[in-house]
Amino acid sequence: MKCTSCKENIYSNDFEETKNVCPSCGYHFPMSSWERIHLIFDEDTFVEIDENITSTNPIGFPEYEKKIKNMTLKTGIKEAVVTGFGKIKGQNAVVAVMDSRFMMGSMGSAVGEKITRAVEKSIELKMPLIIFCASGGARMQESIFSLMQMGKTSAALRKHRDEGLLYISVLTHPTTGGVTASFAMLGDIIIAEPKALIGFAGPRVIEQTIRQKLPDDFQSSEFLLEKGFVDKIVKREDMKNTLSRILALHNKDGRENI
Fold first, then answer.
1. Where are the C4-type-classified zinc fingers (predicted)?
2. DSSP 169
């Protein structure tokens, strides 16, 4: 295959070994939700929850049910997020992992419900919460029902914060639209993968609105780190160790294992 960033050829064996990262330029290609779960969680510790929650067609959008069915057959998942809990190097965590293969990770009512329930599970189990964000934004096929999920997930996270629990948001390529404008940017700690696209409106829309030329690296992880919107950029190969250390630091029983 050819890298979309540096245009160099990548052998499939190398691509698998580097966990979907270009060995030449370090570009982080998107991962499926289950690839990421297997990469981050200790073997045989992850328990999926709410796997049967799926989208309906609240506004009768033409052929929406057919599109959902086709996406399920193509990706092997029923919605654009997989949720559950398990251990990361022995540290407990509840997680929601978005999957850009499923309708570009767009947030409809089912995605919002699953993420809200993951937040509630984190409160119930008194475990830290991690959300891996990857989304093209709100799902237009559900209109206002999709936009409602922004407030719904944000309200759940306020309850989570009031309980004094840790929430780590991990921004991957791409994280845009209503997801960026809600739960993605509400983390106590915000981590990003290198060179990820992170923003609300697209750069072309912003340039037309403000009538100014934007920097070349605008809406990249590196740009957001410089401006203080992101706490740390973490390579994929280091993600499990970084998350486990953060979890251990916030878990008085785990600090001795750091």
1. 3-25
2. E
pLDDT digits (tens, 9 = 90+) for 65-95: 999 999 999 999 999 999 999 999 999 999 9
**Annotated binding-site residue? 133:** no
How many CA atoms lie less than 13 Å away from 51 in the CB half-sphere? 11
Report the distance separating Cα 136 and Cα 160, nearest Å: 25
pTM: 0.93
Q: Give the model confidence (pLDDT) of 32-72 as tens digits.
A: 999 999 999 999 999 999 999 999 999 999 999 999 999 99
What the block records as the tokens of 148 is 């409602």
**Which of 186, 220, 191, 190 minimizes the C-alpha distance to 203?**
220
C-beta separation of 122 from 84 below 8 A: no
Give the C-alpha separation, 147 to 178, whole Å.
Answer: 7
Using alpha carbons, select from 217, 172, 163, 177 the residue that is nearest to residue 190. Answer: 172
Residue spans of alpha helices (H) in 86-165: 109-125, 143-162
State whether residue 28 is helix, strand or coil: strand
